[in-house]
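Why does residue order matter? Because the sequence determines the fold. Keep that principle in mind as you read this record.
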Amino acid sequence: MKSSARLYKAISTILISLIVFRAFAMSVGIVTSMATPGLPPAFGDLYIHKYVGATEGANNDGTELDSGAWAATPANNVVFNLFKVGAPVAAVPEWPEVPPLGAYSISGGNLVVTDASVTTGIYSLSSAGSFITGVSGAPPLDGVAIANGLAQGIYLVVEDAVESRLLGIEDPSGEPLSIVAAVAPFLVAVPMTTADGAGWLDEVHVYPKNEEMSIRKYVDPDGETITVGDTVTYSLEFFLPGDVGAAVTLDIFDALDEALTFVPESLSVTTISATTLTKGTGGAGDYSVDYFEEYGVIIVSFTHAGIVKLDGLTSVIVEFDCVVNDAIRAYADLTVSNTATVEFTNEYGISYSINADLYVDIHTAAIKVVKVDGGGAPLPGAEFKIATSAANAAAGGFIRLDPDTGALIDYDPAPASEWDSLGAANDYIGETDGNITIFSGLTDYAGDSYQTYYIVETKAPPGFNLQSYAKEVTFTGDEDNYTLEVVVTNSAGFLLPQTGGFGTIIWTVSGIALLGAAAIVLVARKKPGKTVAGAGVGAGAEAEGK
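Structure:
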């Protein structure tokens, strides 16, 4: 009896130890969902990891990798279609039982394997369903499409670019992602033989190569305001996918705002390498340029020769100039936005379109002069001019407005300068509406400091005085819609006495006559022998003489 108890206890201890060991081994990664050696399990799970960026350490042995330190972003809403590969389709010669390595595609409902355009196998296919990253599987995982419970066999995995775009590919936070191309169709065995060939993985992890299609846009001057008539330079840098050399089409678009006037001769296409790209027409050269002025659209289209030249390069850069015209004055926020678009068709005929990852803004600025009287009531009828320095204001060197282009020209006293040629008749007096005068198309920041302007009143409302000094105003960066508001208060005019008129002469003569009469009356009322107080020395002497 005691022996039986000891045996039972020993067996229990061994079983508990095995359970504990397996739990520990799983927690530290010793056991990796590996089935017992021999025939494969009847079912397995497939994990397709979709990342944008560098997936360091990625391999193809079917095991799960630690992605915690990757500079890559999980991509959700990417659709993968799975097909179970069946037997070879009858052919002469007969195809291998298992599909060989090569390029995989679907034709006529079958898997077609090619090697250098030569068909090396055709196999029947049956649908195994569609799976979506971040959605399918239990539990759903960001950037992972999980197909649970697949029957043992070989599967063709096809990324569905069209459905993915309809769903909207995004990162885990919901921000959109743009993937440059669907991964090429590939085969995977589920379950899969372990790397050492001694067992089976019934959880198979695959990490297909992924690239994000990106185009970045820059503008010079960057972060600074512009004025009407200034020239700005836009740079579009398209970061090329690894398979760009096999692309069917590659076009870069830019739709310009009406406030930007394109300078066609300024456009250039370059690379950061020694590769030179040549402009051509009619399919010649490496690229062509079309400008549809009515819509403000620029299109740079690469020819086959140009696409081949881009193979192996990291990026291509398109640069061009625009002149800011006076249409910007009518914009409430005085800002012009611009982005760019790339349309790319890969070797599989799948087309992609993406905008630049951010909009590039340029802006102008305005000063709003509000004219009021001493009580703060609106006071129309004033006229102002504007200068960029106190010295210019004092010398009458005001900004001038080119009536043809709308450009603002600063003070330049040199003979025959643009400012001098415009003449004082084109001094910029702003746009006036009642008691409001707006100077638009200005710069609010220049060099490394905010801009200061000097407002001079050149015409006062009737009955009011001109300002006797230039009103100094400085932008601070806190203005709403880049508009600085300043209030100018007028005082009533001084009422000076009139001089030199006929009426004045009459009153002067009359005044003298009245004074004389008063003196006569005063003398007549004196008593004899008495001195009149306050009459002076003459009066006293006269009294003494009598």
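Residues 2-28 form the longest helix (27 residues).
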